[in-house]
Amino acid sequence: MANTGTEHTVKAFDSDINELRGMVAEIGGRSEQAIAKAMRALEKHDLVLAAEVVAEDKLIDDLEKRIDDLTFQTIALRAPMADDLRELIATFKISGVVERIGDYAKNIAKRVPVIASTHKLGPASLLPSMSNIASQLVRDALEAFARRDADLALEVSERDQIVDDFYTSIFRAVITYMIENPKDIGEAAHLLFIAKNLERIGDHATNVAEMVYFAAKGEPMPERDRGDNPTDLLEEPTNGR
Amino acid sequence: MTEVIDSTRSSESPNMTISTAPAISPGDGPLKMSTRNVNVFYGEKQAISDVSIDVTMDNVTAFIGPSGCGKSTFLRCLNRMNDTIPIARVTGDITLEGEDIYAPQMDVVQLRARVGMVFQKPNPFPKSIYDNIAYGPRIHGLATGKDELDNIVETSLQRAGLWGEVQDRLHDSGTALSGGQQQRLCIARAIAVDPEVILMDEPCSALDPIATAKIEELIHELRGKYAIVIVTHNMQQAARVSQRTAFFHLGTLVEYGVTSDIFTNPTQEKTRDYITGRYG
Amino acid sequence: MNSTTAIEKDRNPTDWQGDVMQKRIRRRYASERRFKYLGLGAIILSAGFLAFLLIVMVGNGFRGFTQTELPVDIDFPAMTGGASASQFEGVNGQANLRTLGVKDIVNTSVEIQYGEDGRELFSSGAWQGVSAAILANPKIVETKTIIYMPANSEIDVAYKGDGTAEAEKKVAELGDQLSTAFNWNFLYNSDATDPMQVGIWGALKGSLITMFITLIIAFPIGVLSALYLEEYAPTNRLTDLIEVSINNLAAVPSIIFGLLGLAVFLNLFGMPRSAALVGGLTLALMTMPVIVISGRNAVKAVPPSIREAALGIGASQMQVVFHHVLPLALPGILTGTIIGMARALGETAPLLMIGMRAFIATPPSGIAEPATVLPVQIFLWSDEVNRGFVEKTSAAIIVLLLFLLTMNALAIYLRNRFETRW
Fold first, then answer.
1. Cβ <8 Å between C328 and B126
2. In this predicted structure, what is the pLDDT of residue C257?
3. pLDDT band for position B11 (50/70/90)?
């Protein structure tokens, strides 16, 4: 049931909810930015930028704590019911999830110094595209939260399939590369982790979308069709790409 | 710019009938009272429109809604207290254990013993505590001797959670008790005539939080022994105390369902507006 | 809903300490003081009137309770020829007394002592006091006794300082022999022609009987009517009409009720004139509206929560009324009843209309016997020429006031007893 936009009789309740929404938008924006910066740092091997991402993660953590406190307080003082309650519970969970997305971005930035020259690594070329899509997922999930848009949330959940497929491809490519270039295994392993982080970011975006759907509709999102299980892939060796 | 809620406007979907046969899902317990298409008129003015609700044995049913929505009026239909108002007119079917309570052969005095009522402001008789409880059994001839009467008084006070506090001063005046105790006395008085249904009309609105909590705990204990219907304007209380909730608005039944569903995910917009505090 | 977008002009801060405010405060205090003194003045004035009334009444009436007496030597053995005390004891005493001829004995003794005109000095029925004394103490018949007998009215009045010149002379003559004693007979006797012999008992008994009849008729009818009108009557034009009628009845002048009593009870039903029964019925008609009105107010004052509580546990309408409403309304009903009865007690006009103005020399023995009531008695005595009646009238007024006070005290007692605290 869409929000008609009617205000609460107690105006302070509305101002609390608006403040929380603002903070969720902010933490989302920061996490998105962190992903973009970390990937740029990776492409350009920009150590300064990478260090920035790591430092700014602290802001994301603080913001998450502030969101938790305000949510906690609003639940205690306003005794919210129905959709207000669902929104607050969703806010609570989403802030945790988005904070973890920030952590993944930080993790990617931490690996930048270790990866010397990415242009040598073929499979790495897919990473920027993958990160764009994952980033877009995060942005759309938060947009769905702001608009209480259950349909957009559903769509986000389905588009995560693309990120998963990207991961499957990169996984195969990097494993093949590792077999062919044993001396670069170290760096290749980091690339795998970066790819995994991006895939996890995509999953977390889906978590956010599920919360948004529940807050809007009052029932959990229907299960989507999961794609190939990456663990099935290792049985067939690739034919060299 | 937000829209003004015009409470005189009728529901946005006037043709939507809510649960003409309200849900009796498995595990609801035996049906105690049933109402179908009840309308109440005060002279020309219609106070209740086409309400159908079931009251079951094992569930506490709560009626919520803004002031003047008719929840008290509807409650008073269930034990024919509206008969005392000359201009009130009730149509529709209301049955207790399958018997029509408005049938000519139903004795209204006996009905009110079977369907007891507790009121908003505690109203013990200006008699002793013992006589307050014993009055009902006496006039209905429920006790054959003083011992039996003593027994009834003790059991009722125990069930109401008051025995410990008054057992050694049964002959003190009932009006000397505190507000919360008086209300429990009124509940004990209703229990003493061995009712099947207990109707409570905002029983805690005149009480402090501790007394309220005691009454709510008492309701919890009485559940299952009596079918309980409680009218309350305190939504949190309805949420705490009941298993079934009915939301009234301007004399119509807007939504009726399981309490946890109503308060986490109501189906009707009016219900949602009311319980989230967006009403008016 | 828009929040207040209108810009409120800031009000000038109120100067609570300024001169304007101070003047207002002073004026307010002054007017409150004035009001208080006005109230006090009103109370003092009312109390003053009341005190004046009481002082005048008691002052005048007290003397009505006393009588002037002269001693008479009676030599019983000589007069009676040796009668013995035992003759006058027991059941035969009165009969024997009659044959004794006490009147003659007394007259003879008086003549001996005071001369030929001696008998005139005493009131006409004075010898009856001697009979009573003999019955009270038969032993005196065997001895020479001095008995004090009441003097006649003129001497009595003169002794009390208000008499004619002639009487004053007589008083001066008699000098020390005159004494004052409490007139117990005033309380035992009924009406008489001689002021020294009158008593209020006849009228008092008549009042009591009449009040009793009034009460047993007006109270049940009034209370039941009040209960019906409040609890059972449907709200329609007819009920309104009844209500208005009863309210108007309470304001009808009492003499109209007298006319009604005359027309209905005496002429139509042919009841005995001047009987306490008729008086009681007439006064009941008058008192009933008062009881109905106060009864209705008392019943209205019982809060609906009690009624609802009783109905809620399955009490029938009658049980609600008799177990709950009536006990709580009783103090109010009783107050109203006593007010009505007190008014009825003092009514003269209607009773005059039905004939309770006759000269009744003996107290009524039943409800159908001719009787009179205290206010009528007072009225009749105040009409008398004989000066001796002046103080008797005031004395009767005192008795009436005492009666009223007793009734009020009873009312207050009953009301306090029935008042339930809650």
1. yes
2. 92
3. very low
ipTM: 0.86
Q: Quick one: pLDDT at residue C191?
A: 78
Q: Could you report the per-residue pLDDT of A121-151, keeping only the tens digit for each?
A: 577 788 899 999 999 999 999 999 999 999 9
Query: What are the respective helix, strand and coil percentages of chain C, to the nearest 5?
Result: 70, 5, 25
Which residues of chain B lie closer than 8 angstroms to A83, CB-CB?
Answer: 265, 272, 276
Tell me the count of A-B CB pairs closer than 8 A.
50
Give the per-residue pLDDT at B2.
35
Q: Which chains form contacts with chain B, at 3 or more CB pairs under 8 Å?
A: A, C
Range C150-178 average pLDDT: 77
Q: Which chains neighbour A (Cβ–Cβ under 8 Å, 3 or more pairs)?
A: B
Residue C37 and residue B59: Cα distance in Å, rounded?
66
Q: Chain C closest CA to B27's CA: distance in Å?
A: 30
What does the alpha-carbon distance between residue C193 and residue C202 come to, in Å, rounded to a whole number? 14
Evaluate whether B14 touches B47 at the Cβ level (below 8 Å). Answer: no
Please tell me the distance in Å from B125's CA to the nearest CA on chain C.
7
Q: What is the pLDDT of residues A93-115, one digit of tens each?
A: 999 999 999 999 999 999 998 88
Name the pLDDT band for B52 (thresholds 50, 70, 90): very high
Select from C174, C173, C199 the least CA-distant residue to C67. C199
Is this prediction's pTM over 0.90?
A: no
Residue B3 has pLDDT above 50, yes or no: no
Site from A6, A10, A17, A217 to mutate, B interface, most B CB atoms within 10 angstroms: A6
DSSP alpha helices (H): ranges in C101-200? 102-114, 118-121, 127-136, 153-159, 165-174, 185-188
Average pLDDT, chain C: 85
Asked if A217 contacts A150 with a C-beta cutoff of 8 angstroms, the reply is yes
Question: Rounded CA gap, A212 and C354, in Å?
Answer: 97
CA distances from C185 to B30, C87, C392 (A): 85, 25, 12
> Pick from B268, B65, B10, B276: which is nearest to A6 by CA?
B276
Contacts of B41-44 with CB under 8 Å at 24 or more apart are B41/B88, B41/B89, B41/B90, B41/B91, B42/B85, B42/B87, B42/B88, B42/B89, B43/B87
Angle subtended at Cα C144 by Cα C140 and Cα C150, rounded to the nearest 5 degrees: 75
d(CA A233, CA A171): 9
Please give the Cα distance from B239 to B218 (Å, whole number). 15
